[in-house]
Amino acid sequence: MKFMKIALSDLAALVGGTVLCGDAAGQITGFASLKEAVAGDLSFFHDSRYNERLMNTGASAVLVPLGWNEFPPHASCIAVADPSRSFEQIVEKYGFQPAPFTPGVHASAVVAADVKYDPARVSIGPNAVIESGVELGDEVEIGAGCFVGRNVVIGQGSRLHANATVHAECLLGDRVFLHSGAVIGADGFGYEFGEGRHRKVRQAGIVQIDNDVEIGAGSTIDRARFGRTWIGEGTKIDNLVQIGHNVVIGKHCIIVACTAIAGSAIIGDYVVIAAQVGIAGHVHVGAQSTLAARCGVTRDLPAGQTYLGFPAIPAGEEKRRLAGINRLPQLVARVKDLAAQISGGKKA
Predict the structure, then answer these.
(1) Domain extent listing, the chain
(2) What pLDDT is stored for residue 40 in this prediction?
(3) Per CATH, which fold does 104-317 belong to?
(4) If 0-12 CB within 10 Å is exposed, 13-18 middle and 19+ buried, where does residue 268 land?
(5) 179 in active site
(6) Any bridge partners for residue 172, and if so which?
(7) What string of DSSP letters covers 75-121?
(8) pTM of the predicted structure, to 2 decimals
(9) pLDDT digits (tens, 9 = 90+) for 8-46
(10) Fewer Cβ neighbours under 10 Å: the N or C end of the chain?
(11) pLDDT, position 345
(12) Of residues 167, 198, 245, 284, which has the active-site annotation?
């Protein structure tokens, strides 16, 4: 990518676009946002709120929507149906490329003798440790320094990035991606207080992660006290998310960074949870709900609504409450004025 040079005509052909202005033979050498782009960069524009950034961009070329007719003075423009998706297509072809899958077991890896896998169809990196009873599907990649505990099953096409950990007995489906520092199956946080001390409650369950789940760097999913902590198919979990024991996450959910979900909570399918949300234990969040950033969920929430605030309530109610709070200074001033009139004082 350092020495990349791509003609605008080639980019237009790749995404089915039309060069509206500028030199079709011109070349781009990099990719950037409208705000950060410099000469040689390709960027994209798809939202009229950023019109000023478009007009002032330093990019040499910009993807714009079909029918757009306001062009920056120093950039070529390529009209496409979906600038964001077309930009993604171009970056996928010409941008940074992940290392291709290369099967083999590094000499420094420690693999128990009874692990079930095909060495010709699995990649195991330096200093990885894979304990007894593990099963690895074809095209699985275990990165450098990973730990896979006894009797773990990892499905086809899954990938553990460097230093990810999967503890004993956990089950990972096909195409599960764990980013660096993710920990699956550490003990749930379970203690009982008695005789002046906290007694640890044994966590004897597992974690089950279904197909096509991606879990970000530093995120942790605790094993169940009994049964399973369960992450549903297609769910995507950001960095630094904590999921407690016996939590059930539905299918195709989105969970954004720094969210914490306490034990035995149940999250329905297609729920979106924004950053820094806290969810109490044993509550149920209904399917297709959206929890805005920093929500605090302390009770069951019905399906299909957007929630704000602490404790989380429907967005309309919370907006009205905030509007009322914002009017308090004026109301206080009005009360003082009325009190002064009643007492015969003068208006300040």
Answers:
(1) 6-94, 104-317, 323-348
(2) 93
(3) UDP N-Acetylglucosamine Acyltransferase; domain 1 (2.160.10)
(4) buried
(5) no
(6) 154, 209
(7) -EEEEES-HHHHHHHHHHHHS--PPPP--EE-TT-EE-TT-B--TTS
(8) 0.86
(9) 999 999 999 999 988 878 899 999 999 999 999 999 999
(10) C
(11) 57
(12) 245
